[in-house]
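Entry 14. Ran structure prediction on the chain below.
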Amino acid sequence: MAGNDSIVLDNIIKQKINKSDNVLPDDEFFEIFTFEQILKKYDLSYDELSYGKIGGGDDGGIDGFFIFINNDFVSEDTELDNFKKSPCIQLFLIQSKRTDSFSERAIEKWLSTTMNIFDLDKKIEQIQKYYNSDLINKVAFFQELYLNLASQHPSIEITYVYASKGDVSAINQKVYNQSEVLKESTRRYFSGAKVNVSFVGARELIDSSRLEKSYTLQLKFIENYISRGEDNYVILASLKDYYNFVTYENSELRTYIFAFNVRDYQGSNVEVNKDIKATLESNEDIDFWWLNNGITILSSRASIAGKTISLDDVQVVNGLQTTNTIYHYIKNREDDSNTLKEERAILIKIVITNDPETRDRVIKATNFQTPIPPASLKATDPIQLDIENFFLNHEWFYDRRKNYYKNTGKQLDRIISIPYLAQSVIAIVFHEPDIARSRPSSLLKKDNDYKRVFSQKISLEVYLLCAKAMKRLESFIRIVTSSKSNNLGINEQWKHASPIRILMFHLGMLMVVKTLNKRDYKPKDVESIKENNFSDELISNTLSELIQLTNDYVKSKDLPINIGIKQKDFVTYILDNVGLNH
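Output, structure tokens:
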């Protein structure tokens, strides 16, 4: 059976590769695939999955390094001030191997790495000679985050996940014994931490991959529905039936159907959620929907059979706090017979529309009832819709609704997230690759930054050019740096520097400089560039020159590459020294 599982898993991965027109090497695709399955409940985007990947050798047995706070994905420029008292820091360290077994060696490697990366008495300078820059950057960020949040009295959960194509039931007892040593070793560095070691084999990966993100769901309701036509319904559903509607068969929440909801779940300690929880736990003879505003759902089509409504393209756009509180209430009491008999109801409004403008007006209207940071509503701005439609007309997919196109099976290398497009525009149009590189997720939080990047002054053609150009450069660098040739000046200093990540946006800027043959180009100048201006020869020559300039700069400043390239002075240096045709 274990052999069959391995074969089935290989076929599932092969189908995914063909469906997504994958350009990654098989080993890297397997890593991304396992990350997605292991972290499925967090519904990470392809960019986020790639961000957590540790590339190259000297990785300390860690292929994936993912940090969450209160179940929210965290990157280097996340604003920690947003997290309230007693946040929960969740760290996942993932080792992903395409072998058909689980070995002691993998756990021993983690043990050795743990002694270095979790010992806060050791300076980063002391351990960076042992590990590649990807891992060092992640460790430095984790340590900084942990220390910065110390005054908030955080709890910490560290989960090691060992994934392979093996059979979990056949794991040798020695491996489990080593995992217990690993847990004890980790707890010594973080008093009170919750530490887990999890093994994920072929069968577990198969089962997770089959938890399809279906946007067509059925919801049972009670009594009769109210409707003024086929585009609107008001129903009452029992709390248990609504719980079944928003969860997988394994009782995990379908987080992807909340992608349009502009608020994140605020946690159980927020006053409004405390009130909802108190209502759920009370024995009052008052129905739940009397005391709650209810849920708003958008759908593209609905049909009713008996007392079940079938909905296509489901998105819960308002009621995330209520949903999460109901979810935790029922999940924690699934073995309680009283919960199974739960007869209280929730009020649900259902709007059926295929019109993007109507949909976005509903989202805004249902989310303006309490104060929301303006940046939370940016995805519903008209310019975002314009970009999405323009990209669709050219068979590219602008993911202004996080993971919508990924979840509906579009090819990965044509999906462009809002942060990725913003980074591309900042680098190519405004020649600020240092900002694009160092502030990927915070670029749009300030209103002025947002308006500069997403402006009617920038043509839709330029947005598409930026997206296409960066994806092409990304693919080119990946192919070149994975080959054994060394004709780009990738010396020992670059061994673990992951040039695909750290120089991509600088390369994008220099490609424009080379194409326009001017260093101080203006945003309007970019409109004259065509995609075919970026020939393979030009990309190769420019990348080679950029690497040489980078080597010269970091040597003169005596800086690590990953630090030097984030500086504004570095951008000035390469612009001043890049060669132009005269």
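Confidence is low (pLDDT under 50) at residues 369-376. Will compare against last week's run tomorrow.
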